[in-house]
TrEMBL record, chain A:
Protein's pathway: Glycolipid biosynthesis; glycosylphosphatidylinositol-anchor biosynthesis
Family in the record: Belongs to the PIGH family.
Keyword 4Fe-4S: no
Protein name: Phosphatidylinositol N-acetylglucosaminyltransferase subunit H conserved domain-containing protein
Domain of life: Eukaryota
Transmembrane regions: 52-77
UniProt entry keywords in alphabetical sequence: Membrane, Transmembrane, Transmembrane helix
Native organism taxonomy: Eukaryota, Viridiplantae, Streptophyta, Embryophyta, Tracheophyta
Matches recorded under Pfam families: PIG-H
Annotated ranges, domain Phosphatidylinositol N-acetylglucosaminyltransferase subunit H conserved: 127-190
Automatic annotation (TrEMBL), chain B:
Keyword Electron transport attached: no
GO cellular component: glycosylphosphatidylinositol-N-acetylglucosaminyltransferase (GPI-GnT) complex
Enzymatic class: transferase
Record InterPro entries: Glyco_trans_1, PIG-A/GPI3, PIGA_GPI_anchor_biosynthesis
GO process annotations (BP): GPI anchor biosynthetic process
Upper lineage: Eukaryota, Viridiplantae, Streptophyta, Embryophyta, Tracheophyta
Protein name per the record: phosphatidylinositol N-acetylglucosaminyltransferase
Length: 227, 429
């Protein structure tokens, strides 16, 4: 341990099923102490594969079920017309069904390949290093040892915000930064989606960094979150 | 703030920034429910760039889900595609009642189906009348039958609408409540100084100039009334395909100085047009609930109308058959009773009869009734679908079974407690 080292200690940590949040802060006595917030994925490779298999299974079921429903609708609409009954006797519905099953199978295989590729680049953890009066460093570390980092000087940061992001299939919270001169919001955690419980202390720390008066912000009704 | 009594999710394809009757209804109803202390969340599809979560007045949270609309503002019907996002929203906001609006909205039907599968209480409001004869209506009615087979309560906006819905869907009439629409009486006030009715009587018409709104009737009625009463003038607001016919009528009878065509009138300016008149003329052939006549009555105008759903008290309206001669007779009668009309008194009566607060209280009763309904398990619910039709019943059962399986699968992939609950944000006013 050299004199030049910065001493940090773990001041708090939170753990959920998927992520672990660790907050390291510099010693209280030193001014300008660095604050580090880590969010680590706690999953092993095997659970990754299990999820892939689950997803593949889901897609197969979805493909097959949509085919069955379409087939039933096709038959329903054709029920009323006598001449269509002749078509029923032919192989057409069965053939279309088998083709669409094959196609959905193909689709599933392609998707799982993409996901496996992503899995190789498995994330280890992302962290936010807050340096008072200096700036913020965002780091993403991968299993392969690669680290991607980005430094944002303090005068570029306008405001940190907690945003609810809605996608066609889900909705989640994300912590973003308004940066001077940039139109788009900058995500603090690019790949991970930690829960709101973990994001709030980081957001508060960022607010303190840029000196936002937190009482101006909308008062939040604290709801006891289960699980 | 105390824990809200009910947490309602309003689902429809039709919401602001799109403008119309259903959107208005959802917005006003939500605001009044928020005032009563409940929590309301609205779910609709994305409009252009507007996606994500938005907050409106009073803390009304709106989810603009990024599903592309494909025709007439409806989301593309994928039957099961919206299951993950609906499940996420229901869990995040800890919803207790799901309220769907408008039979024509695909998002509404899908969301109600998923909510039912997951065991939530479901209420449906129908805003329009539909036919029975053409191919589009038949299929729409089948879809409606499917959705309403398993619903807890339904609401219709008028007795006409209730009859129509019950016939179309085969729903038990005892389950359908009738809650009329209301009008924003704070916005539609009579003029401070009423225009004098001694020299000139002004008849106002504001509607879309289409066949269904009786624009053809107007073409017959206006020249006749102008001929009988030299002191009557017409103000026609609104635009549409029949605009050309009205222009032709003006030319033919040289009524340019007696019939004023305003073109499309934005909703914010409707009141200023209404207060210039004494009588409001509505010639719609069919309407589930005509808000236009409520707005006119709230502004203190005497109304002449065809027999549409949502009719005013007898002394505020003169009814007529959708026939030119009968309408002329009704206008004559209206002109004769015009001196006895007091706009302020009319407005005050409207305030008491039609208010959104009243609608919200009645809707609250419907929600409470829905919550009291027992939760049926899957097999009992499937038996309800079988009565929908010989073939259709089995298709519906299949659809529900697959929905149930997909839900269970989603629960395996993303367990319920993985979905984080969103905090209730209290806006300091």
């Amino acid at each position: 341990v050299n004199d030049g080292d910065i001493y940090t200690m773990v001041s708090s940590s939170l753990s959920s099923k998927r992520y672990t949040y660790i907050h390291e802060s510099g010693s209280e006595t030193r001014r300008g102490a660095i604050d580090i917030h880590h969010v680590i994925i706690n999953r092993s490779r095997s659970t990754g594969y299990a999820r892939l298999m689950g997803l593949a299974f889901f897609l197969v079921i979805l493909g097959v079920s949509i085919n069955i429903v379409l087939l039933m609708f096709y038959l329903y609409f054709s029920m009323g017309y006598l001449k269509w009954i002749i078509h029923l006797k032919q192989d057409n519905p069965v053939r279309t069904l088998s083709w669409s099953c094959l196609l959905s199978g193909f689709f599933v295989v392609i998707q799982s390949r993409k996901l496996v590729k992503k899995g190789e680049e498995a994330l280890l953890h992302e962290s936010v290093i807050i340096m008072p009066t200096f700036g913020i460093q965002l780091e993403t570390q991968y299993l392969s040892g690669k680290t991607v980092s980005r430094f944002i000087p303090i005068d570029k940061v306008l405001k940190p915000v907690l945003v609810e992001c809605v996608t066609p299939v889900t909705c989640y919270w994300s912590l973003s930064l308004f940066l001077r001169g940039e139109e788009q919001l900058t995500l603090v955690f690019k790949e991970l989606r930690p829960s709101l419980k973990m994001l709030v202390p980081i957001w508060k720390a960022l607010c303190t960094l840029i000196g936002t008066d937190q009482s101006e912000i909308i008062t939040e009704e604290k709801h006891v979150v289960s699980g | 703030m105390a824990e809200p009594k009910l947490r309602v999710l309003m689902v429809s394809d039709f919401f602001f920034p799109n403008f119309g009757g259903v959107e208005n209804h959802i917005y006003y109803l939500s605001q009044c429910l928020l005032n009563l202390g409940h929590k309301v969340v609205v779910m609709t599809h994305a409009y252009g760039n507007r996606t994500g979560v938005r907050y409106m007045t009073g803390g009304l949270k709106v989810y603009y889900v990024p599903w592309r609309p494909f025709t007439m503002q409806n989301t593309f019907p994928t039957v099961y595609g919206t299951l993950p996002i609906v499940r996420t929203i229901l869990k995040r906001e800890r919803i207790t009642v799901v309220h769907g609006h408008q039979a024509f909205s695909t998002l509404c039907h899908e969301a109600l189906m998923h909510a039912r599968t997951m065991g939530y209480r479901v209420v449906f409001t129908d805003h329009s009348l539909y036919g029975f004869a053409d191919v589009g209506s038949i299929h729409m009615n089948k879809v409606l039958q499917f959705t309403l087979a398993d619903i807890d309560q339904a609401i219709c906006v008028s007795h006409t609408s209730k009859e129509n819905t019950v016939l179309r869907s085969g729903l038990a009439p005892g389950k359908v409540f009738m809650i009329p629409n209301a009008v924003d009486t704070a916005m539609f006030k009579p003029a401070d100084v009423r225009p004098s009715s001694d020299d000139v009587i002004t008849i106002v018409v504001i509607s879309r100039l289409v066949y269904r709104k009786g624009a053809d009737l107007l073409v017959e009625v206006i020249p006749e009334v102008c001929r009988l009463y030299p002191n009557v003038r017409f103000v026609v607001g609104g635009d549409g395909p029949k605009h050309v016919r009205l222009e032709e009528m003006r030319e033919k009878h040289s009524l340019q100085d007696r019939v004023e065509m305003l073109g499309a009138v934005p909703h914010s300016r409707v009141r200023s047009v209404l207060v210039t008149g004494h009588i409001f003329l509505n010639s719609s052939l069919t309407e589930a609930f005509c808000i236009a006549i409520l707005e006119a009555a709230s502004c203190g105008l005497l109304t002449v109308s065809t027999r549409v759903g949502g009719v005013l008290p007898d002394d505020m309206v003169v009814l007529a058959e959708p026939d030119p001669d009968d309408m002329v007779r009704a206008i004559e009668k209206a002109i004769s009773i015009l001196p006895s009309i007091n706009p302020e008194e009319m407005h005050n009566r409207m305030k008491k009869l039609y208010s959104w607060q009243d609608v919200a209280k009645r809707t609250e009763i419907v929600y409470d009734r829905a919550l009291k309904c027992s939760n049926r398990n899957l097999l009992e619910r499937l038996s309800r679908f079988l009565s929908c039709g010989a073939w259709a019943g089995k298709v519906f059962c299949m659809v529900m079974i697959i929905d149930y399986l997909l839900w269970r699968l989603l629960q395996l992939l993303q367990p319920d407690d993985d979905i984080e609950e969103a905090p209730d944000i209290n806006f300091c006013n």
